[in-house]
Design goal:
alpha+beta, Structural Genomics Hypothetical 15.5 Kd Protein In mrcA-pckA Intergenic Region, Chain A, Alpha-Beta Plaits, nine-stranded mixed sheet, 7 helices, 25% strand, elongated, binds uracil
């Protein structure tokens, strides 16, 4: 990423970042850096010798690996917050909804409480898309069952879209899109149609797709366009910057 963008990730405007670079306040790997266009790893950038601490709202995406819990603290297991650098952790961003410990993929974390609330509220119908591998052969009747709103033991799921990508004899692969996120919902829906899940990964929340450049455990800040898109779909006004 460009140096000025990496500095701006800390919550500075792009022009403040450029001024800080021109003033010699920015270093990369301990060396003074004055070329705004230089390509850098944001984790190696320091402003005034310290890791830049974001000052505005924090919006990040994370590629959650299996074995990590979607919580802000846990006595035994690593949490999604443990995967963020100290400077971001200090801002206390919260995860938007939860993925089970064994489920991988897109987790959004933000300090913007209203956006987080709206993204998980059924009222705003933010679509969550998952990639699923399940037992047995998925068929058109399963697509219809998901689309018709599956009756589970304690609630009826909203209509969901099931796109079958591979229907093998022993295993199938599909993408599934929901507009709600109740406890173990995707696992329960597949189990209800007789196809227990083998693997599940979240690919997208609303207009924000998991960045394929992020390896499991990696994160990046959302772009301004991604933040604007999420806020617009949740009926939130454009912010003054
Ligand atoms: N559905 C599940 O069953 N688990 C998740 O983690 C997310 C959706």
């Amino acid at each position: 990423m460009r140096l000025d963008k990496a500095v701006a990730l800390a919550g500075l405007t792009r022009s403040e970042a450029r001024k800080a670079i021109a003033a010699g306040r920015v270093s990369v790997d301990g060396q003074s850096a004055r070329d705004c266009a230089m390509q850098v790893d944001p984790a190696r950038v320091r402003v005034d010798g310290a890791e830049p601490v974001p000052t505005g709202e924090v919006y990040v995406m994370l590629n959650k690996p299996a074995g990590v819990v979607t919580a802000t603290e846990d006595r035994k297991l690593p949490t999604v917050l443990d995967l963020l650098p100290e400077a971001l952790r200090r801002r206390n961003p919260g995860p938007v909804g939860r993925l089970d410990r064994d489920v991988t993929g897109l987790v959004l974390l933000t300090t913007d409480g209203q956006l987080a609330h709206r993204l998980i509220s059924p009222r705003w119908k933010a679509e969550k898309v998952y990639h699923a591998k399940c037992e047995g052969t998925l068929a058109v009747r399963d697509v219809e069952a998901f689309a018709g709103g599956l009756a589970l033991s304690d609630f009826t799921a909203r209509p969901a879209r099931l796109d079958i990508l591979e229907a093998g004899a022993a295993q199938s692969v599909a993408d599934v899109a929901l507009t709600e996120g109740k406890f173990h919902q995707v696992k329960r829906m597949f189990a209800a149609v007789g196809h227990p899940l083998i693997e599940l990964a979240r690919l997208r929340i609303g207009c924000v797709a998991l960045d394929p450049a992020l390896a499991p455990g990696e994160w990046r800040a959302l772009t301004e366009e991604e933040v604007r898109g999420l806020r617009a779909m949740c009926g939130m006004e454009e912010r003054e910057s």
